[in-house]
From TrEMBL:
Residues 198-213, 227-239 have a biased composition (Basic and acidic residues). This is Endonuclease V. Transmembrane segments: none annotated. It comes from the Eukaryota. Gene3D superfamilies: archaeoglobus fulgidus dsm 4304 superfamily. It comes from Cyprinus carpio carpio. Keywords: Cytoplasm, Endonuclease, Hydrolase, Nuclease.
Length: 239
């Protein structure tokens, strides 16, 4: 897996109101500004493909944020959503759960087909350590099979690294002075149904003295409190 070559964080004001299904009108403008800045500052690092934390064709109007950004930037774009959007008969049902349970290994996937038979995306088991899939769909200038293959290739954990690194950088920008220390160790044991169950061993942070504060301990906050479960490494107990 490669390393981060460029990073830029900026606080922006979103002027468009939140309306379900119209996320592109709210978030695409600042993303386009970030791409334009990269083009001016380091044009040699312009991406060959964009990963978007959201949907592409798998959308109420078959035009999610990944499509919106891809068309406006004219770059190949992949939509990767962590939660299932209910679109044309694709819902979180027993049948859908049984399809998820059938994903035995990392890289396994199944199509997200609407009631009319159109395949708008795929559910992908992106990591061996996570049984929850991500939902991959075409944004722009890419095939679905290629989008799924690239997404799986970029995954160390459940969420592909281009998206996960953005989330990590954003959290660091929002909490620059926060001392983050993992104090929870999670071990996994097998269950009879083939899944896994966690056993948590909690450790109280050691009290550390600082000059002039003889009795006040440093505050140590579990990393898990600052990131979502999707980005919490259940194997090591770290982000």
């Amino acid at each position: 897996m490669g390393k981060v070559l460029y990073e830029d964080c900026k606080m922006v004001t979103l002027n468009a109101p939140y309306v379900a299904g119209f996320l592109g009108f709210r978030e695409a403008p600042p993303l386009l500004q970030a791409l334009e800045k990269l083009k001016n500052v380091q044009p040699n690092l312009m991406p060959q493909v964009l990963f978007v934390d959201g949907n592409g064709l798998f959308h109420y109007r078959e035009f999610g944020l990944a499509c919106h950004l891809g068309v406006l930037s004219d770059l190949p774009c992949v939509g990767v959503a962590k939660n299932l959007l209910h679109v044309e008969g694709v819902v979180r049902s027993e049948e859908h759960q049984s399809q998820i349970n059938a994903l035995q290994k990392s890289g396994d996937s199944f199509p997200l087909a609407t009631t009319s038979g159109r395949v708008l995306g795929k559910a992908l088991r992106s990591s061996h350590s996570s049984i929850k899939p991500v939902y991959v769909s075409v944004g722009h200038r890419i095939t679905l099979d290629t989008a799924v293959r690239l997404t799986h290739t970029c995954c160390l954990y459940r969420v592909p690294e281009p998206i996960r690194q953005v989330i990590v950088a954003t959290r660091s920008s929002l909490y620059p002075d926060q001392m983050v220390t993992a104090v929870t160790r999670i071990q996994y044991v097998s269950r009879p149904d083939g899944g896994s169950a966690s056993r948590k061993d909690l450790y109280s942070p050691e009290r550390q003295r600082r000059p002039g504060q003889l009795d006040e301990p440093q505050i140590q906050t579990p990393c898990k409190g600052l990131v979502s479960d999707d980005h919490w490494d259940k194997t090591t107990g770290t982000c």
